[in-house]
Amino acid sequence: MPKRTYVTTPIYYVNSVPHIGTTLTTVIADICTRYRALCGDEVAFTTGTDENGTKVMEAAIQKGKTPKEHTDEISQAFRDVFAAMNIQYTDFIRTTEDRHRVAVHQFFNILRDAGHVYLGKYEGWYDVSSETFYKETDLVDGKSPDGNEVRWVEEENWFFRLSAFEEQLLAKIASDPKFLLPETRKNEVVSFIKQGLRDMCITRKNPGWGITVPGDDSRIFYVWFDALISYLASTGWPGEGWENTWPADVHWMAKEIYTRFHATLWPAMLMGAGLPLPKSIIAHGWFTFGDAKMSKSKGNIIAPLELAEEIIAKTGCDHEVAIDAVRFVLARLLPAEGDTNFTRAEVDKHYNADLANDLGNALNRSLSMAHKFAEGKIPTGSVEPAMTAAIERAKADYASAMDVLRVDKAVDAACELVRFLNKYIDDRAPWALAKSGDTSLPDVLLSMLASLRTSEQLIRPIMPTVADRIAAQLNLPAQTDFADASLPAGTELGEPKPIFPRIDPKKAQELTVMETTPTTPPPAPVAAESNFITIEDFAKVQLKVARVLEAEPIEGSDKLLKLQVVIGEERRQVVAGIKANYAPIDLVGRQVIIVYNLKPAKLRGVESQGMLLAATDADGGAILLQPDREAPEGTGVK
RNA sequence: GGCGGCGUAGCUCAGUUGGUUAGAGCAAACGGUUCAUACCCGUUAGGUCGGUGGUUCAAGUCCACUCGCCGCUACCA
């Protein structure tokens, strides 16, 4: 049995439901898999959910559920979205499954027997919520860089000798240009490794939810250590038959989990275990929204299924087509190198231009002409050389793009052929040929149909349903591989029927208004109920009106200003991170709202005795709150 | 601070190893066409290719410096 082509997405962490980013990664991986299947490969495509770790347990408790109930629920939400997006994974692995635990244990045992792990003492600051250790110097104001609480821990833990693999990793990266993609990420990894790798602490004290270390229930594995092994566990390793699937051909992911984990830790783990390395590890960038990064806290997350609903509302297309359109836009806008701005306007633009005007219309007008000028049958004749050349070029461009995992470029190549077809039609003007009785008419019509048949092939991995619709309108069987693109003469063609109705500008307008107004808040947080505070809780916060007397920058700080404020009779010093948005001179004399009873803290060595209230703009900048009219300093605020 | 990248037409971006008039898509204007989902096709952009200075017969394309932005990574206050 030939080895299967094996594609993976990361297993997704179950702390929230899937958004456009997870959908992007998964759709892209799905497209790659479908492409390889059409090339004739046996394929395996694994996605799944990462369900271990303290955070998961805490989230479950907060919801009043068991971790099992909680993870079942969220994991199902991922499967639902993936099903809706027509993702054809062949395996969905959950890190709470037995097969995964077995693989993790076996992997650890191999590393231990080979001497690649050792028991050592860990001292440091530990951020429970991200399960990460920090050095003293990493801390910001006594908290983790992300602003989470940390606590000092001294634990005996297992360490993986990551430091021992520097040279092997660099050698592998240097010798195999397709191993780490894209190039810019590879460079980052190389410089990361060259700075020196530290051994990685791969266990934690057992908080009650995770995979325990073999023979030692007091510790569980660090989530990343176990999560990576899921790629292997999915193949059946260490049982029978895993060699049919492993090594993976492509690990797809977003950039934030690339350098430290997939491009460094994971290959080193495999080297340590004596297992083959994946062929390609590739990261894409992020979608940004306007100028802001898409994030839950900004409430600007676009949910893929909502996007499909919006397309339906704007166009009246049916559900499957809308899903395919979303897949198409995701692929077309794939942030291959950097980040890509992802807006509804961008989505609409590509829907109308590429799908409705170009592809949809080309199919429609071609079929219509075949009915008018060739009795609705595939004519007998031969494809004209110009069209043959265009088809061959499109196929070649498409294949070479897919081979280096540039799905966006492959989409370009497919669009290019459609544009050529439209131009060709105008050039050859079949309606004129029909009028004059020109004998080349059948060849021209056949060329048009051949082009569409190729388009059907090329878009199939991206828009499987649409490809089927095209085949149906041509009244030909859907293509099952890239070799088959036959056009049997005499075949009765189907009736032309628009697949992509154009976006109705009026409807789009109405929906766009929604976009600018504060959009729907992010999907109800998992623990919505328990996020409420009581009026008594709120009363604990004392807010007061203050006036700025002096303001000056703090030396060596990009963000901080030191302010002297007066609150009634009292004068206080407050440090505020508003330097980017406010010049000291503009602040003097201004009234502000401060949190009066906040515990003083030192920022950059400067004592801050309160906090200014400010909103955050799209760029993360500060927008100070100010009383609507002057109020005596010291006035309470509620 | 170190490493890397980016800055090209209104917008999104292409531009091979330096070589005739710097390209595509979208938007806009004008024209054409009628098979088609008011679609499609063609023409139109006078862009000092961030800035300055070099190398060269020749630079968007190499070098230096510089401004702005970003990524990774480190670290100081």
Molecular structure report:
With 638 residues, the chain is of the alpha+beta class. Helices cover 42% and strands 19% of the residues. The chain is built from 19 helices and 26 strands. The strands form seven sheets. A six-stranded parallel sheet has the order 3-2-1-12-13-7, sandwiched between helices. Strands 17, 18, 19, 20, 23 and 26 form a six-stranded antiparallel sheet that branches. Strand 17 and strand 18 form a beta hairpin. Helix 2 (54-62) packs across helix 3, helix 9 crosses helix 10 and helix 10 crosses helix 11 (344-373). The protein is globular, with a radius of gyration of 29 Å.
The largest β sheet comes out as: 6 strands, parallel
Globally, the shape reads globular
How many individual β-strands? 26
Mean pLDDT: 84
User: Helical element count?
Assistant: 19
The structure class reads alpha+beta
Strand order of the largest sheet: 3-2-1-12-13-7
Strand content: 15-25%
- Cα separation of the termini: 72 Å
Low-confidence stretches at least 5 residues in length (pLDDT < 50)?
Answer: 291-299, 514-534
Helix proportion of residues, in percent?
Answer: 40-55%
Question: What is the alpha-carbon Rg in Å?
Answer: 29 Å
Give a quick precis of the structure.
By secondary structure, the protein is an alpha+beta fold. Helix content is 42%, strand content 19%.
Could you list some keywords that capture this structure?
19 helices; 638 residues; six-stranded parallel beta sheet; RNA-binding
Blueprint (SSEs and pairs):
Elements: E1 5-13, H1 20-38, E2 43-50, H2 54-62, H3 67-84, E3 91-94, H4 98-113, E4 117-127, E5 132-134, E6 151-160, H5 166-175, E7 180-181, H6 183-194, E8 200-201, E9 203-205, E10 212-213, E11 216-221, H7 223-233, E12 250-254, H8 258-273, E13 280-284, E14 287-289, E15 292-293, H9 304-315, H10 319-332, E16 340-341, H11 344-373, H12 385-403, H13 407-428, H14 430-436, H15 441-459, H16 464-474, H17 505-516, H18 535-539, E17 543-553, E18 561-567, E19 570-576, H19 584-587, E20 591-595, E21 601-603, E22 606-608, E23 611-612, E24 614-616, E25 622-624, E26 636-637
Parallel strand pairs: 1-2, 1-12, 2-3, 7-13, 12-13, 14-16
Antiparallel strand pairs: 4-5, 4-6, 6-8, 9-11, 10-11, 14-15, 17-18, 17-20, 17-26, 18-19, 20-23, 21-22, 24-25
The protein binds one RNA strand of 77 nucleotides through helix 6, strand 16, helix 11, helix 13 and helix 14.
